[in-house]
Amino acid sequence: MTAPTDQRALARDAAPSALAAGGNRRAALILLVAVQFMLVLDSTIVAVAMPSLGTDLGFSQASLSWVTNAYVLLFGGFLMLGGRLADLTGRRKLFILSLVLFAVASAVGGLASSPAMVIIVRAVQGLASALAAPAALSLLMTVFPDDTAQGKTERNKALGVYGAVSGAGGAAGMILGGVLTDWFGWQAVFYVNVPIALIAAALAVKFLPAGESTVEEKRFDLGGALFVTAGLGLLVFSLVDADKAGWGSARTLGGIAGALVLLALFLVVESKHSQPLIPLGIFRRKVLPGANLVGGLIPMAMIPAIFFLTLYTQIVQGYSPLRSGLALVPLALAVVLAATNVGRVLPLLGLKGTTMLGTLLVAGGTFWASGINGGGFWLEQFGPEILAGLGGGTVWVSATVAATSSASEEEAGLASGLFNTSNQIGAALGLAVLATVAAAGTTSSTKSGHAVNTALTAGYSNALVGAAIIAVVATLAAAFMLPGKSAMRSGS
Questions:
Q1: Torsion angle in degrees (nearest 10) through CA of 190, 165, 132, 483
Q2: How far is residue 117's CA from residue 123's CA, in Å, rounded to a whole number?
Q3: pLDDT tens digits for 364-380?
């Protein structure tokens, strides 16, 4: 008679094969990318509605920023915990629970009648996203195993689709946010999530592998969970608050120092725990550090670039929110094109070559965009968006492959959580640093006697140059830390 643990392992190993035999892998992929699209979409769709939301509910200018900050804080702070919980409790189970939580929070958001209520809703949405995102990526890895050459090709194609949706979701959120806010009011940007999340939760039971915990010993590392969540949360808070408090302020420096202390204590706890939340041995994997560094640096460049181009089109060029969102369509389409075709490039150039190609395209696109000077869209933005979008889509897939390829079945959720955390911390740090660069450029231009729009454009331009520099640093990281084509062939 087979032991219970062996039965669970056999069921878990059989899940991807059963999916393939039932012809449901494509349905599983569609479901997972739909959820990823919703999560990425939600990070930008609310931003477009914020002016209307703030006016209706009486937000002050300072408190309105917390509609975004609350989401980023909980999302970035709980990603690592979410990734490990997926391994410990079962990925599909956590995936479904997080979707239900997201749907409930979104429904409450549409009914919100006060600033505090909206901020709490955004925090809960961030928490639900932190649980869902690593579970979704690790489920994709389970559905598309890479234990054969054909399996690797299929996984790369699946990651390409996943990356295309991730890249396009942010731009689509700005477009859809403009449409929904103009036609139905700001409440619609919350309500739109409810049917998507609930339908996805119901379909997950049919199309995703049940997969119990991939970790046999379930002694939960409470101390590690508390330290890493508090440390990451405090770090994200300090970064998003730095532009307001000042980089040299006691609040910012003290917050960053406190976060580093908490993360150091986390490492101490992990080194002594029999079942650590994050086995420290995973950081000795040759590819993982480089993949996560690149995975943090490119959002550090791309997300602020999109943010400043949005400000430029609306404030300087006078675009409506909808037109401003439509102006990002070329970037979104370029991301989709690159991400869905990068699987053909990976075998030719390897992880290092493919990633370097992508990072250089991002550097070129953002530097080109820094030439904004009050001209037309086709002259100033179209080309840079295409270049940066092609690079962003390429890097997202190649870095994801690098970050997850060496993870064992027991570490899939952890690897996914690490990569998603790198993305979020990178984006938060990039926005904080480059917002300071933009503000300094605008102040300097104003003191020189330039008009308001000219001064703002100068600040945005400086920030885009900073984004290009960050992308060059990502190129160097890929060159020195990722394996070449020969290493990829040998499977190391």
A1: -150
A2: 10
A3: 999 999 999 988 889 89
